[in-house]
Each structure stands twice: as C-alpha cells, then as structure tokens.
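Collaboration report, partner site 2.

Our partner group contributed sequences for two proteins of shared interest, and the home lab folded both. The records are reproduced in the order in which they were received, starting with the first partner submission.
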Amino acid sequence: MSNSAQRANTLDNSKIKAQDVSLFTFVFIAFSYCCGGCFGIEELVASSGPGLALVILLLLPFFWAAPQALVAAELGSAMPYTGGFYKWIQRGLGEFWGFTAGWCRVLGGYLGIAIPVVLGVDYLKMLVPMDDLQTYLFKAALIIVFTVLNLRGIKEAGRVTTILSLVVLAAFVFVAIVGFMHWNHNPVEPFFNEKAGPLGSFTESIAIGLWVYSGFTSVSFLAGDCKDRSVAWKGILIVIPLSMILYILPTMSGLAAVGQWESWSADSVNYATVAGLVIPFAASLFAIIAFISQSAMFNTSIMAISRGLYAISEDHLAPKILSKVSKSKGVPIASIITIGIFALIGAQFSFGALVTVKVTFLMVDYILIWISGFQLRIKEPDMERPFKIPGGMGVYLLVVIPGFLVAFFAVLVNGANYFWGGMVGICLMSVLYIFIKRICGGLTKIDSVGHPINPVTKLAYGDLGRFAKMFGVFTVLGIIAYFFIPLYEGSWGPEYYADKYGFAGAYDFILQGILYTSIAFACITILLLILDKVIDPKDKRPKNLKFGL
C-alpha cells in the first residue's frame, strides 16, 4: 500500500452513511450550536455598560471568531472528514495532539451535554410550574426524543434544528424591528459601567463575549455526514456574520428602546421587554423561544459530539464499541446512545463543579487548530485547499495571533480555581492517552508502517517529547498565572473564594496549588526530556514517520 493510501485510510476512515444536507440546513445546524439567539448577552450589557457591550460584540468576531472560522474553513475545505478538527490536528501535528484536541472537546461536550436541557426546562418552568419529579421526567422525555431523532441521521435531525432555529431567528428579528421603531435612548451611553470602571467593565464582560462567539470549529465534526462536504466549511463562514448581526441589532435597538441597561438580565429587563412594547404576552413568548433555542442547541450538540467520539473510536483511541454504526441509517448509534445516557444522568445535577476545566479545554483546541494550520502550510504547501486564507504565511499569522492572545488572556481571567482545574485536567490527557494507546492500540492498528510503536515505551515514537512540551507549556502558564491572578483578582478574590468554598483561606490555597502544581510540572518536564533523549532518541527513530512535532 502506498504512503498516500495509508494516510487516506487513517484520516478518511469513517463508515457513517452520508446524507443529503443542504447548505441552508448546515448553516442553521451551525447557528444553533454556536449562537442560538441573544440569550446571555443581557448579562454582558449589565456588567460592561451598553457602549462597551456593543463594541465587544462588534470587535470580537474579527479578533476571536474570525481566527476560528477562517482556519476551520481552510482546513475543512482541504480535509472534509468525519471528526473535523480532530483529523486536521492529527494530520498536522500527529496522533497525540489529535487525541488531546479530540478528547478535550468530547469530554467538554459530555460534561456540558445536559446544560441546554436544564436551562431550557428552567425557562419553561416560568410558565408551567413543576415539582422536582415532574421537572426531571420532562427533561428525560426531551432527552429521549432528541436522542431518537439523532438515531435517524443528520438529515432529519438537521431539518428539526432548522425549523427551531428559524423560529428563534424570527423572534429576534422582530425584537430588532420593534426596538428601532421605539428609539428613545442613546444605546451607547454610558460607554462603560461607571461603578466598575473601564478595566473592571471589560474584564467582567469579556468572558461572556468570548463564550457567545465560540464553537465554530465543533460543527466541523459533521462534514463526513454530508454528501456535499463543502457545506460544512461554507456554513462556518456564513454563520459568523449571521451571529454578529443577530447579536448586535436586537441589542442595540433594545437599548435604544427601553434603556435601563444596568437592569438587563434574564429575569428582568431583556429582549422580551422590547417585544413587550407591542405584545402584552411577550415574557411568556420569550420563555418559549428560549426553550426552543436550548432544545435546538441540545439536538445539534448530540450530532456534533457523537461524531467526534465516533472518529476517535474509529482510530482505536477510544473503546471500539463507540464506533458502531447502524446498518439501516448509517449513524454512529453507540456514541449517540451514550450521550443520551450521560444527559439523562447529568440532568439531575448542577454542572458547576464539572465544567471548571471546559474553558481551558476549548482554548487548547483552538490553539492546536491554529498551529496545525501553520504546520500544514509548511509541510504540505501543495495540499488542495478549495478555500484558503488569502495571502502568504504573514497574513495567516496576522489572522491567528489575535486569537492566540485572546485565548491566553481568557485562560488567565477565567478564575483561579478554573485555571488550576484546567491545567491539571489538560495534562492528565497524557495519562489518558497512555492508557488508551496501550489498551486500544491507536493509529498503529490501522497503519503500522506510518505509525509504528516504540518497543521500549509502547507508545508512538516521540510521544515522551510531546508530553514534555505539554507539561512545559503549562509550567510556564502556571508561573505566569501565579503572579498575574493576584493582580487581577486580589481586590475581590479572597472574599469570593471564601464564600464559594466555605473557608477563609480558599484563595491562598488555590494560588499555592497553582504554584506547587507548576513546580511539579517543571520536574515532570525535565524528567520526560531526559527519558526522551535516553530511550527515544531522534536518531534511532524510523525514517518513515509521518509526524514529528
């Protein structure tokens, strides 16, 4: 078998049956996953002030969403495979980094899979009171319905998501029209929250802005489900301006119509208040719209996360049973069912403690995608790319460097507790990789020539060095965080963490945890570098290895 044939076998090895999915449908699949309406932006307005909120919504697409979408479109047009960015990183950086990115997103998806259900039912309970048992039974029914729907394939699940998303889109278009018709206030005054000050206004609100403009790479998991695979990368490019318009126009017109920016929240002044200027039952209507939005998001989350898990399993980097595909519909039946089961369990609990590492997981994924795009431009400049970011490497770097800086900032300001949990969670990926690689075999099972095993480590050649790079990066980040976080959180951190965790020294405990974890990571880095040099030297590795980073 030729080298190119082997590569195709490890990258495009999906057994999922492709279905007819139009670009229109895929746009709304991406829309429901990445946007789903303006819900959550109310808190952005109240924390930052109206002017700054609108500036954040206007600028973040260029500095944060565009690096995600443009690189995703370039790589997705070249490699429109089931598994999306997991496969791109695997090709550009190798098995371990692909594993890390794929599992980060899958674990983050599993940890948060029930959140849309919980939030959606909470909105509905504003209209229909339910006790705890009734609430859970309703959540369970919703989970089962959408799990069964996904077992029928992306075409039918996507059609439902499109209908639900069009309802949400129409509601916010209506809000924008009503708001502009009742313009009574300057929507950018005051520019920032004077109580918090300019810096406080920005730091308190930027996390919300980053969150509402995230997720564009996740829908790349679904490319292999589509007969016309180009709809995936085209849909990603379309959904960014669509989301931007949907966030900005209703928010601007709403502020212009009702003002009261400091009172904006999900249960006070919001988009329903704007619609209420012409519709007396607007509050009830928007509770239903919010439920519809969260339902569409849950439906799409099952689609995307199940394909990511399936692709990893097909590569023997997860239990093989998760790659089982139904004979009738050609969908990854096992991974869809496991997500449904996890959602049924998760719908009973608060996910506050479980999602502490999710932001760090997401940032690691984005950074690995951008690095893989850079690496592939060097390694494979002649790779066919139906869409390519215009210009040479300099332009590519201009596009992604703002994303790097934003990701770095986001990890540091996400909270000391979240940072600590994230750095530990990410580095445990190497432990998970060692375990799964030894049990399941990894890419060696598919292509033993291109992905040979080091007989001493029982891992891929170079993996010890890759582990060292991961621990080394988080050693540096941890040291930076140890000195930066007190500057950022010092005025409120001790009181906040004491209240959150119930003891006065919680803040100092977390900071010391970051410091000692960083020291431990530094020691591990040094040890791994020594082991890499002694038992996995570069000059002893096979010459036909596909990946070297």
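Second partner submission, folded after the first:
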Amino acid sequence: MISKNCCQCPVGDDYRGKPPLPKDVLGQLYENLDQCCSPKYRGCCCCKLSPRTFLNTHVAILDITFSSCLLKNFLIEDSRQKQVIENIRKLRNDKELLHRGNAEVDDDSFERIWLQLSNAIKEVAEKCEPYFYTKIRDEVDSLKTRPLSKEDTNSSINAWKKLQEEFGSPVDGQQISDLCQKMAQVCGDVAAITNKLQEVRFQKNNPELENVLCYTESQLKAHESKIYVEPMRAMQHCLKNMEKHRFICITGEAGSGKTSFGLQLMQHIKKKNPDCIPIILTEISQWFRFISPDKKFIIFVDDIIGKSGVSERDFAEWRKVFDAMQLRVSDDCFPTFIIFSLRNCIWGIKKDEFKDYILFSVFKTSNVDLSGSDFGMSFKEKKSMLYRYCKLYNISVCKSEFEENRSFEVFDPSALCLCEETLNNIAQSETVSGFPLLCEEFFSNPESLKQRSNFFTINSACNHFKNLVDDLLCKKMYLHYVILVLFFLEVLTEKAYSIQEIMKRRSKIKEIAKKIYLFHFISHQLNKAEIQGSLKDLQTTFVHSKDDGYKLKHMVVYEAILLSFGESFPSPFLELVNRNDVFTYVRSHNYKPEKWEICVHLEDDMTEALARKLIDIFAPNTFDAYTVVYKHPSFNDVQLVS
C-alpha cells in the first residue's frame, strides 16, 4: 500500500511489490490522507490514517472497481480466485452486456446475458464458504422472475423523494406506491406468460411430449378437485429437502395417499419455481426423449418399479438413469426436482439396491413414509378430512350421541348426522395406513356408515377390502369372485378391458373357476348379460368403469384380491400367480415378515412347491434361483433354500 519505509509503519514483506492504491480510492477507506509524521514521507506515510466510521455499516457502497482492486491486489493470492474476480469486472464493463446505451433487449439476448452474468456471480460465490454460496445462488436465481417486494417499493419511493428534493417537483408517495404495485403485478403476469410460452415452444412439433404434458396438467387439475388434506409434517420435511437436495422418495402402504401427496408437492414446488415444467413420467424412455438438458423440470415418477409388484425389468431400466438424475438435481443452471413414489412392500425389498446409487445414499433424509408415525396424518388433519367429507355427502355434525343414534335409526341419507365424539374417536384411531381411502369408502357406502367409528377399528384399508372380497365367497357370488381374480392375474390396475375384451377371456374365466373348484357353480355358456351384471355389482366397491373399459379401482383392491385368493386357494394361487408377485408377496410358512410387509403365507407342506416355482421362474439357469433366494432378505427361511 506504501512503497517506502516510514518511521512508525515499516512496510511488511507481504506488501512489497504490490501496486499502490490511487489516492482517491484510498480516500474511500481512510481519513487524514494528507497528514504524515514527517514531510520526508509525505504521500506514503500511514501513521495518521484513520478508518472511516461508516465502513462498519455501509460496506455495500464500495463499487465493483474498488472492491475488485482490493481483492486482486491485496487480499487474494490464488490465481484462480483472481480470475473469477477479473471475469465479473469484464462483464461489468462489457458494452455488449451492460453498458449498452440502448435499454431495449430481446428475449434471446436477455437469456444469454443473464446466463453469463449469473454464472459469473455464482462462480465468485463458489470460492467462498459453502453456506455463502447457497445463499447467493438462491438470491441470484430469484432475481430473474420474482415480483417487486415491499422493500423494492419503499426503495423506489425514497428515490423519487430524493428527486423531488433535487429538482423541486412534487411527488405523491401513494401514487408511486400504487404504480409500483401495478408494476409488480404486470411483472408477475409477464413472468407467467413467459413461462407458458417457454412450455409451448418446448412442446412445439412434439405431439408425444404434448400428450405427456397434457396428461400431467389433467392429473394436477383432477387432484385440485378432490378432497385432500396434506400431512403437514411430511410436506414441510419434503419442501425443506427439495430446497436442499431437489430429490425426495415417498413411500407408504397402498391407500396412504402417495400419489395425491406427490401431486400436491409438485404444485408447491411449481409456485416457488414458476419457470420449471411439471411432468409425470410413466416409462423410462420418456426421460431420454423429453428431459432436455437446457430446461428446468419438476418430475414425478409414481410407482417407479412396478405398480402391482417388484418388476425387475422396470428396476433394471430405471437404474440406468439414476446417475444422470443425480447430475440433474445438482445442476444449478438448469435445476430439476425429482419425486419418486413406491409402496413400502417394494421399498423394503429393494432399498439396499436403491442405496447403491448416490441419488439415494447421499440424501439420508430423502425417504418419507406416509404410513409411519413420523409423517402420517395427525389427529387434527384426520379431523379436517372428516369434516370435508361430511360437507361433501351432506352429513351434518351434531353435538350429542343421541341425535346421531336417532338419525341412524331412521337412516334417511339426507338427514344423517355424526356427533363430535364419533369424529374424535375416528380421528384418534390408530389407522394410519390407508386412512384417506378408508374415509372415501366410509362416506360413500351406506353399509360402512352404519358401522360408524367401528369401521375404522380395522388395521388398514387392505384388511377392509380383503373382508369384502372374502364376503363374495361367503355369499356364493362365485362369478364375481372369479372375475376379480381374472383382473388380478391380468394386472388390471392401469390398463383397462372393454366388455368385448372380457368376453374374449371367457375361457380364461372358466379355467380359473375350474382350478379353484368353482366350475360347477358357473354357467358353462357365460353370456354377456351375466358378465355385465357381475361387473355392475362390482363397480361400487372393487371396479372402476370409464369409456376405455373396466379396471380395478385401486392398488388396495389388488392386494386384497391377492390375499384372499392366496389364503383361500393356495395351490392354484401359487400355480397362477406371476413372477413379480411371487417375489413381492409370497412367502414360506417359516418366514417372519417385517411390519411393512404384506404377505401370503403358504402352509408348511407347500414350501417345496414354492421352491419349485422359484426354480421355474429362473429356468433354464436354475442355479440362479438358489443364489437369489438365499441372498434375498425377503426369503429368509432355511427350509426353503436347503
């Protein structure tokens, strides 16, 4: 800073050879520049210098030229760090970028300028502490699209008042405030239009992508129209995790609300990141075709490795992009948010293989179990959901149990009421697994309503539906039961069969009936009227009907049929069940399941038959069956692999 030795302030070795600061620059930091201890050292003595008092609170007034000069010449030794400072100075002085003369700029130029400038600022922040970089990155990213804040408005008003003082023209503070609010609204509208235009450009000349985005939009709109109460603990955890890591894996039992939660989470992320494109992926090929590297996405993959059971093929395909996904969630220029969902029974079987990938192993807080005690619905949230269903089905909430009992004695659907105590008992029940689905079933089914709080004393939604499937056998509705088994074996959870396609499978229905000893109770002809009558009876509880045909109403129904079929007819069940379901659900007699597992336990005398089934699955490489089953934690039974 000084080039000669002074009587009281010898120059240290650290500063020898440094270029001196100009006097006007030095004057921004110190007072008394003209004073010195001896005329001999005038202009280079620093004995009398005193720091300016405002620097402690007004460091922000230092301009980029002065700051960069201090950093490069006196504070930074690393040549790479010096270079990033020089880069941002060049951008600041570049006539093409900032000193343009003409204030107009088109969209493409703005995107290019913004990318260069924001990356240069982030590059400087990268050389600082990690927490500082994150703060700067978030601030820079928010500058591009955020509307004017209250602080911006106040700053504008103060600026106008200063102009009034300088030029003597009157300024109305309220008018300026109103103008700033209008500008903020216009900026928000422009940002929304810009984002929509980006999506339109993205879809242009790509009908497949347009279909996927339309499907995503329809799912989000359908979700908004449904009754949904988000589990607050789970949502807060996910939003915090997404802000930090941009990745979350939602797990839970069937009926716990994973899909609805994922859609709700997408909406929250979209509000905070309006320039991101929400998209629901249903197959691995869509990642390669639609997820371009220069766009920002919110990706939701529901039931990532199989809706009915563990699909090794699906897992083998998706695992190809886990590393690429890791890179995308870490990309600060074009960030991507990724949401996975899968059932607990599948997560429990495959979690060790998932954790072989950085995407799952690094982010230890990335798993949220909606069926668990940590993130399940609270009493208050359950109560809120019950109130909403009461309003939807015109069921009033009364104060006394007497009023409730009287309304159920008459049982006029338009005059039913539930008392506060009943609603409290339901909300306090330990039923966490499938509570949203149970609410829907409870309020939509008069027989369920008659049970009142007793309806929720069962362990899960799956147990409830299994009892209903078993009732079909008890009531001798055998054709209904066999049709459900057909839907289960054909895995009609996503795809649907028209009545014509079901009629073509009459021989399959007869074959199933024969194997489960019900052939003599079913008409040999199986005409269309019989099948349509059975489907109509099944629609209210088990089957969903739309223009494209019939399919199972929910995955809970699928699991309920599986458990009923496996327990009632174990031998034909083992013969007919597919490979995915064997690995996901079927276990030997001695196997001790985890809490999250849904299992069909075969009798002890069927252990050999299960072993043969597993060997057949791996044919002709039958030795692989022993290797896989022996190492697989879900087949922990010495008798099975001996």
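Feedback sent to the partner group on the second submission included the following. DSSP finds 31 helices and 13 strands in the chain. The first helix runs from residue 23 to 26.
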